Amino acid sequence: MTTSASTTTSTTVTAVPAVAVDDDGPRVRRRRRGLAPGKPLPASRLVGPLFVIALWAVASAAGQLDTGAIPAPWTVVKTGAHLWTDGTLTTDILTSLERASYGFAIGLTAGVVLALASGLTRTGEALIDGTVQLNRAIPTLGLIPLFILWLGIGETFKIAIIAIVVYIPIYLNTHAALSGIDNRFVELAEVQGLSKLRFIRQIVIPGALPGFFVGLRLGVTGSWLGLVVLEQINATSGLGYMMFQAQNYGQSDVILVGLLIYGVFGLVSDTAVRLIERRVLSWRRTLSN
Asked: N or C: which end of the chain has fewer CB within 10 A?
């Protein structure tokens, strides 16, 4: 008797790369890797500062920091709340904001006007650019003694120094953006018969905006950096004055309160400029967006 056995054959499927055939023969089609950094994370710019504060808190709780030199975060918060309740911190913050605002407004206006005059005309470039480059090479804080002799030791010289700190980066970046506009756009505007005003509005301003916003961010930060030094010279109020007085009495917690407020102001103002830049330059497609 013959017994027939059924045989089951198992087939193993092996994944092979897709093969494309062209005139030169088969070639392997590889999957392209994404080179872009990906979608931006929400509130990503707060991760770094919060991580530093967390390390500070952990080191303070573990007793690894000298409380006389670097007080714990909760001590700094308690000191800030006490100064706010007394009303001294409110007065100092408002005074600092007023000085920074006046100096920033003057520096912003001067930087934009000088950049346009220098970037759009050869005569303006000959008269302005070399002078600004010379001013940039001179340490701005080194001008303080001379400005005190010229303007007195009151509020005027402080605002003037802040304006100089602000206008230099705005001018440099805006002028560089104007100089970097492709000459083909200028030729196209001439062929189209655009007037000078339309040329500036449709070609110059859009082309210079990216550089302008870079300078604006640097100018905002520079206004706070200059302010902390200037408020220690013949001042009776302001965050810099508060920190200078705290140094004399060895109050490191008060100094850290002032530094943290400066840091918050700088971060908030930079974020505000970034948001405005993203909205104004929404037509651009860059890695950041």
From this structure: N
Per-residue model confidence as pLDDT tens digits over 110-159: 999 999 999 888 898 999 999 999 999 998 888 999 999 999 888 899 99
Q: What is the DSSP string of 140-158?
A: GGGGHHHHHHHH-SSHHHH
Sorted by sequence, the CB contacts under 8 Å of residue 262 that are 6+ apart come out as 224, 228, 239
Q: Give the chain's count of helices (H) and strands (E).
A: 12, 2
- Return the C-alpha torsion angle 255, 259, 264, 270, nearest 10: 160
> 239-248 and 205-230 are packed helices; what angle lies between their axes, rounded to 10 degrees?
30
Residue 149 tokens read as: 């002799």
> Tens digit of pLDDT for each residue in 226-254?
888 898 888 888 999 999 999 888 899 99
The CA–CA distances, whole Å, from 23 to 28, 111, 114, 269 equal 14, 60, 61, 59
> How far is the C-alpha of 199 from the C-alpha of 45, rounded, in Å?
37
Residue 217 contacts residue 270 (beta carbons within 8 Å): yes
In angstroms, the first-to-last Cα distance of the chain is 79
Pairs from 150-159 (Cβ < 8 Å, separation ≥ 24)? 153/233, 153/234, 154/234, 155/99, 158/99, 158/103, 158/227, 158/230, 158/231, 158/233, 158/235, 159/99, 159/102, 159/103, 159/106
pTM for the structure as a whole: 0.79
Q: Residues 140, 165: contact at Cβ < 8 Å?
A: yes
Cβ neighbours of 162 (radius 10 Å): 28
- φ, ψ for residue 143, nearest 5 deg: -80, -10
CA–CA distance, 81 with 78 (Å, rounded to integer): 5
CB 157, CB 151: distance < 8 Å: yes
Phi and psi, residue 281, nearest 5°: -100, 35
CA gap 131, 12 in Å, rounded: 78
